[in-house]
Specification:
3 domains, six-stranded mixed beta sheet, alpha/beta, 10 strands, Rossmann fold
């Protein structure tokens, strides 16, 4: 489906940020304003609403139902809080209090009502929900029924024919507000919404990949879609460009850059320069235009990792150098090690030293025994007097002295 001069394309964009009973959302207003402007630039007739209470929210949906009837393409984009209770999704107006779980159906807007507003669209229906944000209502809501479940995020639902529903996070997941003007989900939408010739399913996949990359895999948009095989474009292909054939779109294969998303998350988890260099090498090998975004992020992460690693590497090399270079004592220095003088030992200590050191020196010079011992006594005594036998240190010196006393001064043979 390609837009022409007589194509009817309409959009309802709602940004709820200024909540009365909980804190305001940081980016919802800017997200909605920027998305509304983007849809206008690509030919949509846009209704833009902000900070709607329940009555205003219902009135906006009712009015848009009439505008969307018979449209070739209709879009509803919502940025704000949402909640899931017993697998039912609700969008939260700014005047909701949600003191108890029983109030949810009466103070909120069921997602089913949003989809009902698109029921008379003749062509493609699209719903973008940046409503899986960290929900402050959950902590203050009193639960009155133990069997009623309340979960963060939204629950996935099956899309009707000709409909695509794009959730900003996976089922039960939480969407991030981001640190800039826009949330990661809105930022990804804005980057590709006016890209000529980008088929709708590829457009949705790019959004998913970029949100995962921007959040380190913590946020993964979920898509529920039931679309025809004919290619669908938000912006028509440029003249002369080749467009996909219907047969190619019936079973769209996984794009090569989808694997890059997982690799990016792995490199980010490791966080070392080597990990980022390996990722960049693989990413460039894909040679896909869609990987440019990941390469830019990875290059920035590599520079950051290298800056962190440099001081640590310098300290490591210095410690290795100092460890490999033994300290040298200056001639005449008072720190130069000298052999300690022999000191008197207690009887038990002397016996212990005698037992240990005698066995050591006996092995070194060979303890004389029998006739060989008598014949070799002179050699033994000479060796002991000259410090032979490899003895070292104070204990070995005492051992040699004891052996000399035993075998060379008339001791036992």
């Amino acid at each position: 489906m390609t837009a022409t001069a007589d194509t009817k394309r309409v959009a309802l964009v709602i940004g709820n940020a200024a909540y009365k009973n909980v804190g305001s959302l940081a980016t919802a207003s800017a997200d909605a304003a920027d998305i509304a402007a983007a849809f206008r630039t690509i030919g949509f007739r846009v209704t833009e609403e902000a900070n709607l209470g329940k009555a205003q929210f219902e009135a906006a949906l009712s009015k848009f139902t009439e505008e969307a009837a018979g449209a070739d393409m209709a879009v509803i984009y919502y940025a704000g809080h949402g909640i899931e209770i017993n697998k039912q999704n609700y969008l939260i107006p700014v005047d909701a209090s949600l003191a108890t779980d029983r109030q949810a159906p009466f103070e909120t807007i069921p997602l089913d009502n949003v989809l009902t507003a698109l029921q008379d669209v003749l062509g493609i229906r699209m719903v973008f929900l940046d409503a899986c944000r960290n929900n402050p209502f959950l902590s203050r809501m009193k639960m009155t029924n133990s069997t009623r479940s309340v979960a963060p995020g939204l629950s996935k639902i099956e899309a009707a024919d000709g409909t695509v529903i794009s959730f900003s996070a996976q089922e039960g997941g939480v969407a991030m507000d981001g640190i800039g003007r826009n949330s990661p989900f809105a930022a990804a939408l804005l980057r590709h919404i006016n890209e000529p010739g980008l088929e709708l399913q590829f457009f949705l996949r790019k959004i998913r990949d970029e949100v995962r990359a921007a959040t380190g895999g913590e946020q993964s948009p979920f898509i529920s879609a039931s679309l025809p095989s004919a290619p669908i474009y938000l912006v028509a292909p440029e003249v002369g460009r080749t467009t996909p054939k219907d047969s190619e779109l019936r079973n769209i294969p996984e794009m090569p850059h989808l694997a890059v998303t997982s690799d990016f998350a792995s490199a980010q988890q490791v966080g070392t320069p080597a990990a980022w260099k390996a990722f960049l090498a693989k990413c460039r090998a894909v040679k896909n235009q869609s990987t440019v975004f990941y390469i830019e992020l990875a290059n920035a992460a590599l520079r950051k990792a290298e800056s962190r690693a440099s001081p640590a590497s310098s300290r490591t090399s210095k410690s290795k150098k100092s460890a490999s270079t033994p300290p040298t004592a200056k001639a005449g220095s008072s720190r130069q090690r000298r052999a300690p003088a022999a000191t008197p030992r207690s009887t038990s200590s002397s016996r212990k030293a005698q037992t240990v050191d005698r066995s050591d020196d006996s092995k070194a010079v060979g303890k004389p025994s029998g006739r060989d011992g008598v014949q070799n006594r002179a050699e033994l005594c000479k060796a002991l007097l000259s410090g032979g036998g490899g003895g070292r240190g104070h204990r070995r010196h005492i051992g040699r002295q004891l052996l000399y006393d035993q075998y060379c001064r008339g001791g036992a043979n």
